[in-house]
Amino acid sequence: MEFAELIKTPRVDGVVLHRPFMPTVEGTLCLTGHHLILSSRQDNTEELWLLHANIDSTEKRFVGSLGTIIVKCKDLRVIQLDIPGMEECLNIASSIEALSTLDSVSLMYPFFYRPLFEVIEDGWQLFVPEEAFKDLESMTDEWRLSEVNKDFSVCPSYPSLLTVPKDIDDESLCKAASFRHGGRFPVLSYYHKKNGMVMMRAAQPLTGTNGRRCKEDEKLINATLCAGKRGYIIDTRTIAVAQQAKARGGGFEQEANYPQWRRIHKAIERSNVLQESLIKLVEACNDQSHSMDRWLSKLEASNWQSNVKEILTTACLAAQCIDREGASVLVHGTEGTDSTLQVTSLAQIILDPACRTIRGFEALIEREWLQAGHPFHQRCAQSAYSNGKPRSEAPVFLLFLDCVWQILRQFPCSFQFNENFLIMLFEHAYASQFSTFLGNSVAERVKLLLSQKTVSLWSWVNRPQELERFLNPLYEPNNLVIWPSVAPQSLLLWEGVFLRWNRSTKCLDEAYQEMAHIIEYNKELQNKVNSLRRQLAQLETEDSPLQTP
């Protein structure tokens, strides 16, 4: 297919660009195979270069012969194009819609992009599993790199190399994989150098209604426990949802079969609920009514901040089990590719100071998101404005970045990177000239030959001239574990993402003033709640009581 076939009108003069709180620009609009470009050809005026892949939806309006196209983007921008001539407007709108919804991954911009900078460091070779395993080998000899998934046949969403207990052979891993959803058997996520405890991740066990069990799976999990130690299985579903999964062949670990493990259920919303939450949040942020009560009501109804709180709470729990309880942890939900990765990666940010550096955070994203099989292509296909029926879209990665921003805001000196680094990752996850976030798994990226045909995001980010924009001037290395507060008054709306294109937020200031009064009022209540928690903790009769952060 030729892109020219989809471009009915490649150029229109006299187009006026409107952007919120910015001066209007009149110039020439051009359509290419991957970009919408508007240039006024004036030296002091910024040009608009918009990737078609960044367009979430379009709307058309007509007043006489003047047409208007409202372009809503995945990075939450909304722009307006006034186009003279009804036919030209219809042609441009039709072309934009066709070019922004291409089905073939190989037609996307990363396959056509040629960098103007010299690639000093190949990002595709920076975070290979072998290098990460060398660091692990320097701390312990109880693990090995397995090639059981070298052809991606055991688990299509796992990488070819996996870190597993040294005493578990590949045959046992295959049997354990057949007992886990999508073949995602338990693998090492994090080793805590301080006490040797580990965090593993997996998908739900396929116990079904008959209570099926797998000796190899039990042996694999128990191989991570030290003598006389117990472990914690953190299931990111409610007990009701986990019970319902049994009817569909899924389920959870039966305590009788895993006697050394205590199961804890923490409710993190499913992907379809998260997508609806994002849509409501963005609608609230774009509300032009300037009514504080209305804005606060919409913000609360979106449940976005509640989702942030639940994810952070679960991550804190996992970190608490490892660091304070001295216990190993297994994290899973249903598929092990969404909420599981949110929890394991956030727990590492809390526990491991290396993950708070730029290079360490990049390694974390590679290890816990890209190599771990988060389906970026599916989850980021649409954002908050799409008119299409949601399929597998969900802001799972954006929620993770929001949680990181909350911790960064609470510990501003403990992170080497700044907020701009997180915003940049959000933007490139949804639309980019780089291919790092293309595909749903390592297997798909290998099949697409991305490392040979395209440029990695890390090759660009790690150039000294780019890194300067992302460095935190307040950074002082902090080797301690950091414990973020998850109290409602400690979690704020991420303005840098959700309000950056809409800075006329008079109601926001008023709302925060109102919230400040509410926070003061709640402090006394919070003190009473904490007192009750301490009393309950004293009455707790479990062997190793856990207090939810």
UniProtKB/TrEMBL annotation:
Location in or out of the cell: Cell projection, Ruffle membrane; Cytoplasm, Perinuclear region; Endoplasmic reticulum
Keyword tRNA processing: no
Record keywords: Acetylation, Cell membrane, Cell projection, Coiled coil, Cytoplasm, Endoplasmic reticulum, Membrane
Membrane topology: Peripheral membrane protein
Domain of life: Eukaryota
Gene3D superfamilies, sorted: Pleckstrin-homology domain (PH domain)/Phosphotyrosine-binding domain (PTB)
Ranges in a coiled coil: 508-542
Chain ranges passing through the membrane: none
GO BP annotations listed: negative regulation of autophagy; phosphatidylinositol dephosphorylation
A GO molecular-function annotation: protein phosphatase binding
Gene Ontology cellular component list: cytosol; endoplasmic reticulum; perinuclear region of cytoplasm; ruffle membrane
CDD domains, per the entry: PH-GRAM_MTMR9, PTP-MTMR9
InterPro entries: Myotubularin, Myotubularin-like_Pase_dom, PH-GRAM_MTMR6-9, PH-like_dom_sf, Prot-tyrosine_phosphatase-like
Domain Myotubularin phosphatase: 123-498
The family this protein is said to belong to: Belongs to the protein-tyrosine phosphatase family. Non-receptor class myotubularin subfamily.
Protein name, UniProt field: Myotubularin-related protein 9
Organism: Sinocyclocheilus rhinocerous
Highest classification ranks of the organism: Eukaryota, Metazoa, Chordata, Craniata, Vertebrata
